[in-house]
Amino acid sequence: MHPVQVIAITGGKGGVGKSNVSVNLSIALAEMGRRVVLLDADLGLANIDVLLGITSKNNISNVLNGDVSLRDVLVNGPGGIKIIPAASGTQEMAQLDAREHAGLIRAFSSIADQLDILVIDTAAGIGDGVTSFVKAAQEAVIVVTDEPTSITDAYALIKLLNRDHGMFRFRVLANMVKTSQDGHNLFAKLTKVTDRFLDVALQYVGCIPFDDSVKRSVQRQRAVVEAYPRAKASLAYKSLAKKVDSWPLPTTARGNLEFFVESLVSTARG
After folding, report:
1. Overall average pLDDT of the 200-224 stretch
2. CA quadruple 90, 94, 99, 105: dihedral positive or negative?
3. In the structure, how many helices (H) and strands (E) does the chain have?
4. What span, in angstroms and rounded, lies between the C-alpha atoms of 114 and 30?
5. Distances (CA, A) of 242 to 28, 29, 107, 226, 237
6. Residue extents of the structural domains in the chain
7. Which of 127, 134, 182, 200 has the most CB within a 10 Å radius?
8. Rg for the chain (alpha carbons), in Å?
9. Which of 144, 198, 145, 143 is nearest to 167 (CA)?
10. What pLDDT is recorded for position 228?
11. What is the per-residue pLDDT across 113-141, written as a single tens digit (0 to 9) for each?
């Protein structure tokens, strides 16, 4: 089985643009020829389908119930990406029995040959649902905006993942910034507190500029990279996708996907 890159997009605070980042990064990676699956992991408040104006009959909970296979749940999204819609009701993940646990691992293994990258759009906050997805992923991208609450919440999330789950390396994306210098300044603010109080390594992956085209595309229920490919934000997403594509792949023989589901479920049950 070829290795699958598993990337969690998170941030602690709601309203920092995680879902927009997840959708646009996924499409930009697909434009580069990668096979991308986007998992809406906001199990209580699914929003990828709303962002993109897509409707789906089934979601991940139907897979857990054994009604359908994961392939049946995959919805075609813009730019050639596939989407796994969220289940409503956060408890389901936390209460899997051994049979469902095995079923979920089989379900993800069954689509492993169809994808190169799994992008996970996590919920807001720092609850168990968020930390289990981030911890299970191979790459954690923390989305921050230039608001004190965003920096505080990002710090709280990093601290929790570091202290309770042994995570050490995080990538940081500055979103909705006026200039690229503002992005660097924002990263500096965050590292100032993490360097002082935590033993973690933060890596700056760049910034997405504030751009009215993003708002317009949301109103049209389209992704900005698709609706306005030459917009400042779209060009920034394309440049981010190139960076992400150069990140090292997992080295385990069975890829990172089974490991992802294993650790996801064991966290939920533990």
Report:
1. 96
2. positive
3. 13, 8
4. 13
5. 9, 8, 29, 17, 9
6. 5-269
7. 134
8. 17
9. 198
10. 98
11. 888 999 999 888 887 778 878 888 889 99
